[in-house]
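pasting for ref. prot 1 ->
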Amino acid sequence: VNGSGLSTEGRLTPATLVDLLAMARSNDVHTADLLATLATVGGEGTLHSRVHVGRGLVRAKTGTIGTVSALSGVVASPDGSRMLGFSILVNGHDAVATRPAQDAMVAALV
């Protein structure tokens, strides 16, 4: 299995990614730590200067290669009792130019 994201045989749909995030919210020992590995908005990593709202409420993973840009993660309610999964994959456009639109979609969920 090629987990690099570079193989055309390892494609996932946004719905599949959101399903994976929902499974991570379960109490299963094998998935419980997945959400903790995601970067937080305003923290270190690729989300440091993205999605300028929702500090502490948004955890996500970015991905960019060529003309493909991805932003997938969760938005927590302010009290942390509920989470909404999201996955925004853009293919065939300037990856950097699509980031503001992805960020705006996530900001609308906060």
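and prot 2 ->
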Amino acid sequence: QGREYVDALRRAAAGLKDGSPTAAGDAARAAADYAELLSHHILKENNILYPMAMSSLPNEAWTELAAAFARVEAERMGPVKRVAYEALVARLEAVYPSTTQAEAWRGCGV
């Protein structure tokens, strides 16, 4: 379904270029439908799938995951980029307050 909305957006964009009188409305509908689809998808992840995954992993697995994430981060990103990303997260959290789920992930050391 998401691909259909993206295709509709592409068609609408082409219509806008060609001067189609219905293209703006078509684009608005496709964008709204896609946004609704993504909102439902994200809600399902945040409220069902992530909590289920988090509760199914034992503490030892969380410890191993945190160590693996830290190793990959150090190898691929390094401390300078980490500081930049942390600053970005702080700015975004000021605008979009953290959810309980994000707080839970942060508490896992990831």
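Residues 88 and 94 are 10 Å apart (CA to CA).
The first helix runs from residue 2 to 18.
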